[in-house]
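Why do we care about 3D structure at all? Because function follows from shape, and shape follows, mostly, from sequence. That is the central idea of this module. The next example makes it concrete: a single protein chain, its amino acid sequence, and then its structure expressed as tokens.
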Amino acid sequence: MIKTAFKMLIGNKTAFIGMIFGFFLSILLISQQSAIFLGLLSRSYRIVNTVKGPDIWVMDPATEGEELIRSMPKEYLQYIRSIPNIEWAAPITYILLPLKTLSGSYHVSEINGIDDETLVGMPYLFNGNSEDLYREGAVILDSNSANDLLATVKDDGTKVALKIGDEFEINGSRAIIVGIGKATPGFFPQPIIFALNSQIQQFSGSSRIQFIAAKTRKGSDIQEILNQINSNPKVLGLTSDGLKSRIAEHFLKTGILINFGISVLLGMIIGFSIAGQIFYMFTIQNLGFYALIKSLGGTKTMILKMIIFQALTVGIIGYLLATAATLLWGYAIQNTALTFEFPWTLLLFTGSIAFVISVFIAFLSIRKVFKMDPHTLMAKI
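And the structure:
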């Protein structure tokens, strides 16, 4: 019977392709919008992903997100280092300062601190040497800014990327590029710069820090350490995952989840309407075949399996094609300012939606087939 169901399905090529296309549009919209949303969400806590090594983050209790950071006195660093089972603790600076290129263009740049002693906070370098950071005015510029945002534009429109040795001004002070690094772009197109904390103090004129990244000793109780940190009401200690959750919750308060939720809902409506309607019409056109199967002794269970097989077949094909298209799109936009995050959990999410749509359209058709009178239909054939 499964073989017969498959022949019925591919026998009507127009309906077969139409159902697959309905699933394809539905899952493509859902998976693409979900991947964009997850990419934006990961950018909200990109500072946690950028700094490698720490498992505890300490901040002012008022800090909630990238745009809502309250700085702390640098003296808090000694308090964290004095707590037992803290292997190391490093200050993390995150500050916005004005930047002016030699061509006269003005930008608000994002400055990320690197610990002078341990180099915690150092990004991946495409070009340059970390030892050069100790030079006066030394900074690392992210590759996107070097190749696009801060690139010099010639009269003919071509861009000349910034390179090691080029200079610009940060808050009125001279800065020289000693490295081109990798950085996750933020929500706004602004230059991303990395420099030693001591150098940032010269740029900004302030010795305050925004975070303290700490690493606990192997085998220590992280929760106990956090309890000791949080016994001081002036600071808040969180695990890396805890900080991600805190920032993500603040980010979701903007209402962006509702906007992308509507897109997912529209994708489901497309699947229910297009694939569902075509599958229902396909079933109506084949009622005579089902009537013949019934008259020859076919059971409801047999017909049920045939219809479910047909619905799942078009659903799986449409799901696979849509997932492949989404992944190809994600591959095409990598190393750009666009966001894309496609974890394995998103595969399960879109797969479950495709399954729900398949079951729904199968249920509508099953009801119609089970209600038919095979003798009446056979008399009309």
